[in-house]
Amino acid sequence: MIYTEASMSALRQAGDELADATVATLFERGEVGKFNTLMRYVSSVGAPLPEGLPDVAREYLDATRTAPTWVDWGEMEQARLFFIDNNVHISTALSFAAMPACYLVPRVAKLLSATHGLKYPSKRMAETGQFTVYLMQPDAFEAGSRFIPAAQKVRLLHASIRHHLERENLWDTETQGTPICQEDMIGGQLFFSLLVLDSLHRLGIHMSTRGADAYYYAWRVVGAMLGVDQDAVPKTLEEARQFLDLYMLRHMGPSPEGTLLTRQLIDLYEEVVPGTFFDPIVSVLIRHLIGDTCADWLEVPRTRWDTVVKAVPHLLGVLETIEDRSPLGAWGLDRLGHLTSILELSSLTRGRVMHYAIPDTLKKEFDVSSEAPRSHRWTPPPATVS
After folding, report:
1. 230 contacts: CB under 8 Å, gap ≥ 6
2. What is the per-residue pLDDT across 150-177, written as a single tens digit (0 to 9) for each?
């Protein structure tokens, strides 16, 4: 598929018809509070829906309770093994590349600033980490899984933000298009997939082509579950590169909201890491993974560690070589990575299960102005624009 300015602009006008209609009816009937209360008891696949759940919500949940019919389960298993092998690196890339990339799109940064979640700065990162862990469980789409209910709720959350902005005339659809439109949803999907793979490559992580393809495929499945138009989404990493390059050139730039969100992200991880000696590494990793121009737009501080980070890929390369050549070393590093990810997620969630609810209002101050052996090492598709 070839993406153009015209085709991308068309995606700016589209939202998510099913989720938008569900949310509109819930607000029209005054049933949002009841829905949120009852949905706290729906956290796993196969659990009976509670009595009193609004009919429109029940119909939505029935329509979205299974994976797309086209899912290749062998490919999903490859993605899970890739995640197990690289979980700590993926967590690093999600935190210090994918999230800051979202903040580089001023319109998206303003949307993120619209929710009450920023009163609890780690909430957004905790939700993202928990969502990814749910996805990569072996039973993600089976009875007892927590992934599908989480996806159903996130999709309604996006629809509720669209509903508030348009109903309260807080969004200029003439110039900005639909809030959380298809273009932005696909862009977000690529931040959490292709940009994560780019970051792993930049860190010197050894990845097979099969593993990288499978990881991207898993996020295509996620996109489908979140209401992304499957006729428009890139099917391959090469198509994803073309879309992401054009998307970022169309929209990325500095904004006050992007700077604020980045500062909160840095502060959050500096609090998570004990002591203060290693605090600069947070800023260093962000700057290393997104580049100096983007880091300057987000006002990421420069530190005395900026040159030290160049040694990180070499150190990780040594560990990766040990993992490649030694089954025992691979097992030990995988276990260490798993425990590190669990500790990080526990710190972010503060031991709580994150719930996704439809907000009654937006912030008043919102201002709209192990996988197979690593032969055939994966390298990122080349940039499609200079």
Report:
1. 68, 223, 224
2. 899 889 989 988 888 888 887 888 888 8
Q: Is residue 360 within 8 Å of 366, Cβ to Cβ? A: no
* Lookup result for tokens 């273009």: 183
322 domain-assigned = yes
Percent of the chain with pLDDT over 90: 37
Residue 384 belongs to some domain of the structure: no
User: Quick one: DSSP state of residue 168?
Assistant: T
The residue behind tokens 């605090």 is: 279
pTM, two decimals, is 0.81
| Containing structural domain, residue 14 | 5-45+55-349
Token pair, residue 150, equals 């989480």
Instruction: Give per-residue burial for 7-20: e unless 16+ CB within 10 Å, then b.
Output: ebeebbebbbebbb
User: Distance (Å, rounded) from C-alpha 172 to C-alpha 26?
Assistant: 24
Cα–Cα distance list, 90 to 85, 192, 196, 262, 376 (Å)? 10, 9, 7, 19, 20
